[in-house]
Amino acid sequence: MAKMQIAYEGNKVLRKKAQEVKVVDHLVGQLLDDMLDTMHANNGIGLAAPQVGISKRIIVIELPDDEDGPIKMINPRIVEKEGSVVGLEGCLSIPNVYGDVERAEKVVVKGLDEKGKPSRIEASGLLARVFQHEVDHLDGVLFTDVATNVRAYSKEELEQAEEEGRYEPALDTV
Question: Are the CB atoms for 23 and 30 separated by under 8 Å?
Fold first, then answer.
């Protein structure tokens, strides 16, 4: 398992629509594991392959205190959305910058698991937000493209947003 380099804003791979994975093999499995290691090393909760310079439709997610373990998904697509909620987001590829993003409260995501088997996940709350953020990465969309009030926030401003229920501290690590 290896830690990979994070691609930062300005890297062209972040603006490309990622390619669908045609074959799920040991190389894809290794990439998933390496992405998970990279996400953990950067204290992240979500990571898309373009964020490590690879234009493939692959994401990993692991929320704090999630007893079910990490989600590894290939070719994810959001097939249902419900509700709407605005929250403050950040991104590993755009450090120290935040903005308010409107996302669906609930989503249904379909794709393949790490073994290439069909997978369907119903998500709400923080998990739904992270799925939407990561799938946006696969389409070349950064959170700053869909956010308002984009700027650097002070620690005090982030704490206030958390108290108001607009910010989850883990969200600056997606």
Answer: no
**CATH assignment of the domain containing 79:** 3.90.45.10
pLDDT (tens digit, 9 = 90+) per residue, 86-98? Answer: 999 999 999 989 9
Range of the domain at 100: 12-173
**Residue given tokens 């804003």 in the structure block:** 9
Residue 95 domain flag: yes
**Active-site residue 134, yes or no?**
yes
Catalytic residue selected from 67, 134, 159, 168: 134
Asked if residue 172 has pLDDT above 70, the reply is no
For the stretch 27-79, pLDDT in tens is: 999 999 999 999 999 989 999 999 999 999 999 999 988 878 899 999 999 99
Please tell me the chain's helix, strand, coil percentages from 3-state DSSP, rounded to the nearest 5: 30, 35, 35
For residues 46 and 49, give the distance between their C-alpha atoms in angstroms, rounded to a whole number: 10
Instruction: Collect all residues with Cβ–Cβ distance below 8 Å to 18 and sequence separation of at least 6.
Output: 48, 49, 50, 55, 56, 57, 58, 137, 138, 139, 140
Residue 151 lies in a domain: yes
